[in-house]
Amino acid sequence: MNDYLVKALAFDDCVRIYAVSSTEALNTIGKRLNYYPSALAAVGRVMNVTVMMGSMLKLEETITVKVDGDGPIGLIMADSDAHGNVRAYCENPHCHFEYVDNNKLNVKATVGQSGFISVIKDLKLKEPFIGSIPIINGELGEDFAYYFSVSEQVPSAVALGVLVNEENVAVSSGGFIVQLLPNTPDLVIDLLEARIKELPPISQMLADGMTPTDIVKEIAGESVKILETVPVTFKCKCSKERFERGLISLGREELDDIIEKDGHAHTVCHFCGNEYDFSKEELIDLAKKSK
Q1: CA quadruple 221, 226, 181, 81: dihedral positive or negative?
Q2: Would you place residue 186 in the very low, low, confident or very high pLDDT band (cuts 50, 70, 90)?
Q3: CATH number reported for the structural domain that contains residue 252 in this entry
Q4: For residue 148, with 0-12 CB atoms within 10 Å meaning exposed, 13-18 middle and 19 or more buried, which class applies?
Q5: Are 5 and 20 in contact (CB under 8 A)?
């Protein structure tokens, strides 16, 4: 199990820790849609935090995370559930930026430094929970730590990272979230801050062979209690039936226009790249079902 997520408690159950590795899932996305390096890194970071936030849910609850910055990548969106199934995409996978001084991937320039992050949780209630914050940094780890502090009132440290090689393939992709539960002693907080500050980048730890379990133990030491490990899998929900419903929602007038001008429809899933074709006869049937 290469891609998996760990949930743990530490320091007498007053600290919650999540860690994930998602390299294979991210490369599935990158290869299907020909992602450039910094776009792959940005989408990977959003995917990593989304799958960790998904693991905080119950049963059939789901989460969607949107990062809508002013950078060239455009909207980044990921969704996940409580079982490690995740998918992600961006509007423009063909953008790439590096820092001038060290040639590292510049996620901040890719995403942008202004805009909004939205989190939509479907908790199977009448209305979804929606939280939104402004982008404050663009590297995304700090941004999501700010989200947890402001929208969920949970002090958190968030590390997200993706290492991409010269062939545009992710060598490592992962992240961790450390959250303080109520009444965490100051001594524990100080110890955690010192340990996290001394850690290498998450992408480097994973590239060096460390697993999510190793990383959790590196953060919490002997006090850690592993609660669960969950496989992480790229899973797209697309189907021809879903695209049929989307076409029907366009309305009779627009479908008639497509039939007259093109005689067919070619659709592509933004998440996985799967293609679905609709013949003229199929479009006529869909037009009859639309309003």
Answers
A1: positive
A2: very high
A3: 3.90.1280.10
A4: buried
A5: yes
